[in-house]
Amino acid sequence: MATMMRSRKTNVLVYALIGALIVGMAGFGISDVLSGGSSNDVATVGDRKVTQQEFSRALSQTVNRFSQQVGQPVTMEQARLFGLDSSTLGQLITSRALENEAAQRAVLADDDMLRASIMSTPAFADSSGQFDPDAYSYALQNANYAVRDYEALIRAELSRNLLNPAVSGGAVSDGTSARVIGQFLNESFNVDWVQINLDSIAAPAAPNEADLAAWLEQNAADYTLPERRSLTIAVLRAASVAAEAGITDADVAAEYDARAAQYSQPERRALDRLTFADTTEAAAALDRINAGEVSFDDLIAERGLDPSLFSLGIVQAISLNSAARDAVFGTEAPGIVGPVDTDLGPALFRINAIIAATTTPLADVADEIRAQLAEPFIRERLAAVYGQAEELVAAGATVEELANETGMALETLEFTSDMSEGLAADEAFRTEALAAAEGQERDLLETEDGSLFVLRVDRITPPQVQPLADVRAEVAAAWTANAHRAALAERANSLASQINAGAAFLPVMDALGLTVSNAPGLSRGTSTDAVPASAANAAFDLAEGETAAVANGEDSYIVLRVNSITPAEADSFTDYVAQRSTADEAGLSSDLFFYFANAVRDTTQVSVNNRLIEAVLNGFQ
């Protein structure tokens, strides 16, 4: 029985995220005509090659990076579905096209540039941050690189990068756009404003029958009952079967005792570890920390490596050797302990946090244990009923006959699509209920929790607008609220029109008993609490001397007048102009090199070995 018919649903949101991330990482694409090819290279780009090993390594790194970003393993099938293979190949082809262009233009990184690049790579440094030839050799060997091949790769990359300043180095902003935008953002508005609240407006008279009928007609969707499906259901709930299993409290308690280790968590500590060549060096480092000369983080930074490499995470005492265990778990507070002898040499440990031992009470897991103990019985019972019910359904039994023969419960339900409790909360049940035709005996299905059901739609009642008599109170309340808010808007807009026609703002507001507030120095480039945001945004769209009314939520309006607009002094936003100009130049440089790379890519002869690519992809597990 299809393992109780439990189907794992695809995590649509995760894969949507993968698709979005693909767009961000995709290369320029592969628009050339692809050939079958028979060489040992995945692609030939001008005089350059993309080797099988390079493509395999790059694709593996891309897939691993994606797996980390989306929080779950990404299979090669999924990677291909979302284009990771083609985007990786596109990036490699674009890089080779640029390298080919650099070679044709005699742009070549010299030995000094190559040496400086390699010697400044943190992965090749020793504990003091200096280049270590042994670390260099080990890293290349571990990555399956020959020294000659790696250095050729780095030289090509450096040469390719030399094209960037040559192409985009002339991108210069004269600051005109930055100054125009800076002036726009920093001009100063002086605004008078008042707030008119709904409670200051008299409530409208009660609506008559014509008002209510018109409102109901205009807003029929708000008072329409959804389609209703009258269902007859035969159902066997997993929960009711569990109750028949006869699992006692004593059974649960005994199982809890048997799993004591599962429900008890020993004390743990969050650790960082820093190893040294010898005890003397470790002790000297501790003395520097204790003297306040450096911090533990400073010592890590001196190594020039990723700080995460020094983290042990959260560990239990059993995971450390005896010396480290005694030192780390022998202290009662976070801090630094050591030096301690470890398998990697003398070390200092930093205790970042202490997580006390915990025990989960029986009461917290009793239901979980009871369900697990009942599972074999539930599985057997549901399997038996499933087999019997499946035969009856195949033989054309009605829902009533099915319930009578199998012991499944016979129920009825007035189902609508907005229901979300009981069976109606289950996606399989909802899909089946909405898909069934009227009078049709449907197939046996299973819910997410393992319950079995068969349903029939006896009657479908179309969506219908409720009679006014049934919703009179709701309609009257909605009409009244709308009329009240309309009166508020009319008052505010009337005042704005009156002032725009020539009336003075302050006398008009004083006569109505409204408190006038003044907000000087409003500008588009800064936020303020001196006036509601809705009013500030409205002010920036007005000319000097204009008045407007703007809603401030549902129950209030702001009436505001722009008294003056003062241009910003040029020297008041020089920092903005400098920052904006720098950003403009960076953006222009990036665009120039993008279009250059794209043009180089499109004009370089490219051939791709499809058979070899397929072999590489099939080689991934």
Q: Distance between termini? A: 30 Å
Low-confidence stretches: 1-38
Q: C-alpha Rg, in Å?
A: 37 Å
Number of helices: 22
Integer average pLDDT: 86
Largest sheet descriptor: 4 strands, antiparallel
Number of strands: 19
Strand line-up across the major sheet: 16-3-18-17
The best one-word shape is extended
Helix content: 40-55%
Give the structural class.
Answer: alpha+beta
Question: What portion of residues belong to β-strands?
Answer: 15-25%
Model description:
The protein has 621 residues and is α+β, with helices and mostly antiparallel strands. It is 48% helix and 18% strand. It is built from 22 helices and 19 strands. A 4-stranded antiparallel sheet has the order 16-3-18-17. Strands 12-5-14-13 form a 4-stranded antiparallel sheet, sandwiched between helices. The protein has a 4-stranded antiparallel sheet with strand order 8-7-10-9, sandwiched between helices.
Q: Characteristics of this structure?
A:
disordered N terminus; four-stranded antiparallel β-sheet; alpha+beta; 621 residues; 19 strands; extended; 48% helix
Entry summary:
By secondary structure, this protein is of the alpha+beta class. Helix content is 48%, strand content 18%.
Strand and helix layout:
Layout: H1 12-25, E1 41-45, E2 48-51, H2 52-70, H3 76-81, H4 84-104, H5 111-119, H6 133-142, H7 147-168, H8 176-186, E3 188-197, H9 209-218, E4 224-225, E5 228-236, H10 238-243, H11 249-258, E6 264-265, E7 268-275, H12 279-290, H13 296-303, E8 311-316, H14 322-328, E9 335-342, E10 345-355, E11 358-359, H15 362-394, H16 399-406, E12 409-415, H17 427-435, E13 445-446, E14 452-461, E15 464-465, H18 468-500, H19 505-511, E16 517-522, H20 533-539, E17 547-551, E18 556-566, H21 574-603, E19 606-608, H22 610-618
Helix pairs in contact: 2-4, 4-7, 4-21, 5-7, 8-21, 9-18, 11-15, 15-16
